[in-house]
């Protein structure tokens, strides 16, 4: 059992409780993985002490939708339209990513999130070019130590095949991924299915993708209302 104590001293604590309380120049004690005390001028001899004066202490932020593998492309598409993004990022760059590139991108992207106070992320990963790419993406998240929902998406090998009224069904490698990487529900990284939905795939394909997620009891995430494609139905 982990009973390590960490004392965060002198911070502005934003509680996010029902009363939305804020405590100025207050200490917070963590024992193991639980907050065990909040108070003023606390002294705990056997605790690691962190000086949080002039800092905010608050629960970690949750990013509910991020393509973590694209973190290393930051700044390359800030003025792109959706169509330009599909053409240049998914159509040109994504096919060039190797499995080791995906690992590095996810590791760096997850560490960047943690450095900015985001402790949980939903990774909508549409770079599943091969089983090794999926393994690399998951390993990057796990090695970073972030809490994440890994949304197993589609390959980034051909945007035309996978995102323009696609007739391609979701990759069945998801079954292997679940067996090899998610044998326990009690872990920081958990699985979901990131599907394209009827704006990017045929309606029957979207239906079968949803049925695939239900077969394995997975949460589903899809894009909706996507600009050019929003009036398709």
From TrEMBL:
The keyword rRNA-binding does not apply. Residues 56-226 form the Amidohydrolase-related domain. Pfam families: Amidohydro_1. The keyword Transmembrane helix does not apply. InterPro entries: Amidohydro-rel, Metal-dep_hydrolase_composite, Metal_Hydrolase, MTA/SAH_deaminase. One of its GO terms (molecular function) is hydrolase activity, acting on carbon-nitrogen (but not peptide) bonds. SUPFAM superfamilies: Composite domain of metallo-dependent hydrolases, Metallo-dependent hydrolases. Keywords: Hydrolase. Transmembrane segments: none annotated. PANTHER family: AMIDOHYDROLASE-RELATED DOMAIN-CONTAINING PROTEIN, AMINOHYDROLASE SSNA-RELATED. This is Amidohydrolase family protein. It comes from Mucilaginibacter corticis. The lineage of its organism: Bacteria, Pseudomonadati, Bacteroidota, Sphingobacteriia, Sphingobacteriales.
């Amino acid at each position: 059992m982990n009973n390590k104590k960490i004392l965060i001293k002198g911070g502005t604590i934003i509680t996010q409780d029902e009363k939305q309380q804020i405590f100025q120049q207050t200490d917070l004690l963590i024992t193991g993985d639980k907050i065990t005390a909040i108070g003023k001028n606390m002294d705990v001899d056997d605790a690691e002490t962190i000086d949080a004066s002039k800092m905010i202490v608050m629960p970690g932020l949750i990013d509910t939708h991020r393509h973590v593998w694209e973190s290393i492309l930051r700044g390359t598409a800030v003025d792109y339209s959706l169509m330009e993004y599909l053409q240049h990022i998914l159509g040109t760059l994504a096919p060039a990513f190797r499995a080791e590139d995906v690992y590095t991108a996810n590791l760096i992207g997850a560490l960047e999130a943690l450095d900015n106070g985001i402790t949980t992320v939903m990774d909508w990963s549409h770079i599943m070019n091969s089983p090794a790419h999926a393994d690399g993406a998951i390993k990057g998240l796990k090695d970073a130590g972030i809490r994440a929902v890994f949304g197993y998406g589609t390959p980034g090998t051909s945007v035309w095949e996978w995102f323009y009224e696609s007739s391609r069904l979701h990759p069945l490698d998801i079954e292997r991924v679940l067996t090899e990487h998610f044998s326990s529900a009690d872990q920081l990284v958990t699985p979901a299915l990131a599907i394209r939905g009827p704006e990017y795939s045929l309606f029957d394909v979207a239906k079968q993708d949803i049925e695939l997620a239900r077969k394995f009891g997975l949460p589903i995430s899809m894009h909706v209302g996507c600009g050019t494609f929003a009036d398709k139905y």
